[in-house]
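Can anyone check this?
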Amino acid sequence: MNQPLAYIHPEAIIAQNVVVEPFTTIDKDVEIGEGTWIGPNVTIMAGARIGKNCKVFPGAVISAMPQDLKFAGEKTTAHIGDNTVIRECVTINRGTIDKLKTVVGANCLIMAYVHVAHDCVIGNNCILANTVQVAGHVEIGDYAIIGGSSSIHQFVHIGAHAMISGGSLIRKDVPPFVKAGREPLSYAGINSIGLRRRGFSDQKIAEIQQLYRLLFLSGLNNNAALDQIELELAPSPERDEVVNFIRNSGRGVIKGYSRNGNGSGE
């Protein structure tokens, strides 16, 4: 629906049944899929690729130039997957020469005042609660939930199905399937409730718990714990996902919790 009080660049590619509310600006080199609703006072800049049946609420800015001094004007994009909801005043920057795109997956909920910086890759079915701040080059796996007012350091990786408490400072990688909280951010058990909601069996959840007991509660360092995991636990997609995540961690992973901050605990 063409709203006369909105500005839509003639080169923008917009499906026939997209609703664009008043006082919104849509630049050239923008693509918007069927059934999407673009609320009032939204700014969608060059390079935006917005999927089907999305909702973008007032004040959001999609595909603005990256806040990176190395950015030299290269042609980059910002992708929003199908059925994703972008709430009020969210800012999502497009990529740089590093990845050439920023990606927010399908079926995500990005709550008000979230910032997603350049070259981030956020998976499908993720929830970022109000005012989460995501620095550049961050990767977040499918079904991850980040609590409100959390800040994520650049280049951090967060594994699939992880759940992180509100107000967290996320400086290290957070492996898949876990809950994390406290300061400094630490392992707080596995996300068993979330896993059950997503169809993981009790047996599979018990296997993941045993894996993290060896990793965080055995007193072994990470390399020794990973060797023990591969000796004691049969190969499975979940085991291999955790092992590969930790072995490939660039920033190092969060530690197990302890009262004195030095050891591990649950």
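Reply from J.R.: I decoded it. The radius of gyration is 20 Å.
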